[in-house]
């Protein structure tokens, strides 16, 4: 059995980094509890715990852009995981970008450094 | 000015992912508060907030394996950052591995998938 330390954070959630398994692009960071982690292992699709909705979240349940999990990596402290994924639809961010990290800090401001892959209004409705 | 949401987590800390700027390898995840983030921007060296020691932490202050920050990426929710770094010494993990994520889940167990770069006993003393 795998030992993971879900109790380290005060809210019992552990960060999970989703990384594109081919390009190495970091797509997003979300949180998992034991249920979300086990559901991910069981189904091969990335599940998280939504902090805003306070419920289990199958990534892509609205957009269809699920993440097929190819590998799961665990860190030395057993309090963070990486899902190495194939991102269906090519974009992880609900704003239509490949990665949620689509902006970089430059001279004290944020600059967009990625192209939009889809229009959120079309995917999620207005 | 950059808006970052340090207040989202109950402990006022935000996850910061360190990623090797050349290979794309995710090296580690640690936490930052505003002080650690600003110190990183100011010095170009990755600073975190140590949760175990409850103090500002210049990564590499003991080992010399500092992280030279080349770019900082910010996510859509402004509650997570990526430090794209050059890892001095080649290894980020205190256990001597290139990445803290040196194990993967395989058939319900953790398997080491990286080589050790240094011997922790030599670097940190016994």
Give an account of the 3D structure.
2 copies of one chain form a homodimer. With 126 residues, chain A is mainly beta. The first copy, chain A, is built from 2 helices and 8 strands. Chain A has a 4-stranded mixed beta sheet with strand order 2-1-6-5, with helices on one face. In chain A, a hairpin with a 2-residue loop joins strand 7 and strand 8 (109-112). The termini of chain A are far apart. The interface between A and B is large, with 40 and 40 residues. Strand 7 of chain A pairs antiparallel with strand 5 of chain B.
Number of strands of chain A: 8
Order of helices and strands of chain A: EEHEEEEEEH
Q: Mind describing the biggest β-sheet of chain A?
A: 4 strands, mixed
Say what oligomer this is.
homodimer
| Percentage of residues in strands of chain A | 35-45%
Unreliable segments of chain A (pLDDT under 50, ≥5 consecutive)? none
Mean pLDDT of chain A: 93
Order of strands side by side in the largest beta sheet of chain A?
2-1-6-5
Total helical segments of chain A: 2
- The level of helicity of chain A is 10-25%
Inertia-based shape of chain A: globular
Helices and strands in order:
The structure is a homodimer of 126-residue chains.
Chain A: E1 14-20, E2 26-32, H1 34-43, E3 47-50, E4 55-58, E5 67-74, E6 81-87, E7 103-106, E8 109-112, H2 120-124
Parallel strand pairs in A: 1-6
Antiparallel strand pairs in A: 1-2, 3-4, 5-6, 7-8
């Amino acid at each position: 059995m795998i030992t993971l330390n879900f109790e380290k954070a005060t809210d019992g959630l552990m960060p999970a980094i989703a990384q594109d398994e081919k390009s190495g692009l970091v797509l997003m960071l979300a949180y998992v509890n034991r249920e979300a982690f086990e559901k991910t292992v069981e189904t091969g699709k990335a599940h998280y715990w939504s902090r805003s909705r306070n419920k289990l979240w199958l990534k892509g349940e609205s957009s269809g852009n699920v993440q097929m999990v190819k590998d799961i990596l665990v860190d030395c402290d057993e309090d963070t995981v990486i899902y190495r994924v194939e991102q269906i639809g090519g974009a992880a961010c609900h704003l239509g970008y490949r990665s949620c990290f689509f902006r970089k800090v430059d001279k004290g401001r944020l600059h967009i450094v990625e192209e939009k892959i889809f229009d959120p209004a079309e995917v999620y409705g207005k």
